[in-house]
Amino acid sequence: MKNKGIVIFLIILTIVIVTVVTLDYYSSKPDELPENPYALNLTSFEKVDNSQIIYTEIRDFTINFSEPAGICCTKDQIYVVGDQKMQIIDSYGKLIHEFKFDQKPTCVYTSAQNIFIGFRKSVSVLTGDGVKIMDWNSFSDSTVITSITEKSGIIFIADAGKRIIRKYNPEGLSLGVIEGKSENEQIHGFIIPSPYFDIAFNADGEFWVVNPGKHALENYTINGDLRTWWKATSVRIEGFSGCCNPAHFAFLPDGSFVTSEKGRVRIKIYKPSGEFLGVVAAPSKFEQNSHPPDLATDNSGNIYALDLDKKMIRQFVKKEK
Amino acid sequence: MENSYKNSRRDFIKKGTRVSLLLTLGVVGGIGARHLTTEKYVWQIDPFKCTQCGRCATSCVMTPSAVKCIHSFDLCGYCDLCGGYLKPDANQRSTAAENQLCPTAAIQRKYIEEPYFEYVIDEKLCIGCAKCVKGCTSFGNGSLHLQIIQNRCLNCNQCSIARLCPSEAISRVKASNAYKVKGSFTKEG
Fold first, then answer.
1. Does residue A32 lie within any of the structural domains?
2. ipTM of the complex
3. Distance between CA atoms of A42 and A303, rounded to whole angstroms?
4. What CATH number corresponds to the domain at position A174?
5. Which of A224, B39, B57, B151 has its CA 20 to 30 A from that of B131?
6. Among B54, B137, B164, beta carbon nearest to A30
7. pLDDT in tens, B101-134
């Protein structure tokens, strides 16, 4: 009789232990949480059909920068700025020259004669050998220089802080500004919610400006008159979404636009007419919600993306059919 | 001899009472001084660690959650196409319910001037689900972010959200600096 009581007690104890262990196993643990009804799933907007990807990554090389900022390239050299320096490297990643600065550059542009280094509130003009010729410092306190380009001896400087494009002659004399205003009601002027404001000339000498708040690319004369524009607003792969896209762009030799975006980080190509052509790099290739890669292209149609998070230059070429 | 014994006992009680009072005064004073000098700690979210998983809405012991979305207007782009206000596949950029991302319509969209819009959070309606935060972070400047509102928080000894937070974004901070609002609070802290 005494043994029977002990057996019953042990059976009850076993049942209690098993119940507690089972309940604990199925309880809400950080790695075993039930589906959350409030989760916002954006993965469907990151997926890209393989048939839309028309470029392939053939090479990447790590660069010795902790905070790379901008890239441009010439026929056989790549110029990268960031930290407090500029590096000139060949197309295989070999360092050719390095130049130090006393502040952090934001962008770089090379013309036939000079190298223009953009800082937050100033521009340094260097010779092709890296010797400083002059500094342009007469900007506003709220100036944020994000891009530089040049045509016919006029240097264009994109000022995201003031939302204007400044024009200078090679001696640093101001030639006025472009505000992007137009009588056309659909054009508003430059809307720059964050410091991404890119400008470039295509091979035909046409001056194009990103209006990121409008998801538009706008073509101006050198005098600042709007000639034409196109826009593509959509969270789908065909368009630009969010506050400030495209963040960067560059031109291919045929006049096609190469664009990179923030938020859903991706690189795409649009025809000269603005029609979506295809994808260079899908969001899966980048860390999401991070920095948009700066872009450069060469005469052969290679695309160089400066990946600011992975600290590397990634080279893309067109897929062979 | 008997008288001496009585005096001794009386003295003992007197001394004992004095010592007890002094001890009590010391303990009470010590506790008071500790409360005055020791910093109080509260729970708060690091917006740069938050991955907008949505658990703040469902895991808080409070209903609705003590976690709310707050807006750093300094960082906002005042966008017409706001990723925090509109569903990613919204039909129109309007205030129609079917276009709003927020499940409780806690974000008010106000027209300022073409093409700028201001977005204001109604704290009473916000349940801290972070849908808008994810939309803003994914498509915009990340000006919308979550914070634990201290006058709603019970300051539990073990925060039930912190226990489940997959990114360990919730930690104790000094009550004198109880908020980590983007703009004044940066990624580097």
1. no
2. 0.73
3. 27
4. 2.120.10.30
5. B151
6. B164
7. 999 999 999 998 877 899 999 999 999 999 999 9
